Amino acid sequence: MSSPNAESTAFRSALEVIRAVEPRVAGAIAAELTDQRESLKLIASENYASPATLLAMGNWFSDKYAEGTVGRRFYAGCQNVDTVEALAAEHARELFGAAHAYVQPHSGIDANLVAFWAVLADRVEAPALEKARARHVNDLTEADWFALRRELGNQRMLGMSLDAGGHLTHGFRPNISGKMFDQRSYGTDPRTGLIDYDKVAEAAREFKPLILVAGYSAYPRRVNFRIMREIADSVGATFMVDMAHFAGLVAGKVLTGDFDPVPHAHIVTTTTHKSLRGPRGGMVLCQPELAEQVDRGCPMVLGGPLPHVMAAKAVALAEARRPDFADYANRIVANAQALAEGLLRRGANLVTGGTDNHLAIIDVTSYGLTGRQAEQALLDSGIVTNRNSVPQDPNGAWYTSGIRIGTPALTTRGLGTAEMDVIAELIHTVLSQTNAGSNADGTASKAKYALDAAVADKVSRQAGELLAGFPLYPTVDLT
Ligand SMILES: *Cc1c(COP(=O)(O)O)cnc(C)c1O
Question: PTM N6-(pyridoxal phosphate)lysine: at which residues (predicted)?
């Protein structure tokens, strides 16, 4: 443990140094802490990293170029970067029981690109090189290179549909993954909202993807990765899991056995800043046969790594290996379930009827609202959420019909199941007192809404009182 005042002193001193150069930046940093402290944050993808993790990022590691891998850099003088990168990878391997960890990706999307290109290199490029008896792509003839590039661009991916909770980076057209791959998606059962593994198997048999992707950012249930791997194997696909959202639940051993992706997937990607509670960044875990290709993430997809962020990853992963992190992960799920039950008891509709992970999706059509109206009305009332599609969403991806709520952040703050019931009451109060508005021509608006200011104020006050009992960063006093 650091001494009681060390954290306050560290952040206060840092702000003093910054203030001397550009006071508005120092002001914005301090204001961000105030805003975070005052907002009831139910955004499922956010969290609060520890002071040690935050401080590990603000230093001269940021000045260093370190292209390459530990011990094999293109720049001299990387011994200290080697130390932190090796430590972060070691903690990641131990924490997740992974054969290999690559901690350079700057974000979740980068981690996915590294994974896609590692698989393409292993399954498309390497055989083409072998066939041409070339050791390196530079040794290919123009004609062979042209043919290989066409083949790389003609591969298939099967991933979860966006409205069922999948992610843009799993082959959707607005993202580069959708331009790289011919993509098809599997959804969820329209009646239950659950993944129908028989349907996934059927889609895989028909489509024969090179990569089968599992993982989500808005699916409130566990995924059986053993079954998904069997499906991948049955069609010769590489099985990839993007655990960006639920890595903390894997780290904390809430998701084990069939629900732990690491023993089942060929390759696993994640962010480090969501339920894992580390710095903003990404990471790839993989089986030994993909390790060499994954380590080529730079220069394939990435430029120089961010050594200051890798240092923070090492700190956060060390924290996640401590026994109290498992307790934290269990409380995340207990809180999500308490919140879901509190809402259900008050008459809300939830996609799949509840949750067994860290998030839930409220279908707000039963309140006569779109996701957009609900999100804004909650925000007016001091409750920060985000709108989200529901399966077969009648309001489309912009207005949506859902509100996604998640508990990693509030659980870090120390709120428990009793507080979740209070929050369920606040959410239900706002949603049931909000009315959808209409356009000038009398048609229903998907954006306008009316909420009595007195209700919004009262809920805001109650939310503030609730949070006051659970100070955020209690060891950090900037005054
Ligand atoms: C958040 C998320 C990402 C993207 O992470 P960034 O760090 O924002 O790039 C990728 N995949 C899934 C499933 C996610 O939830």
Answer: 274
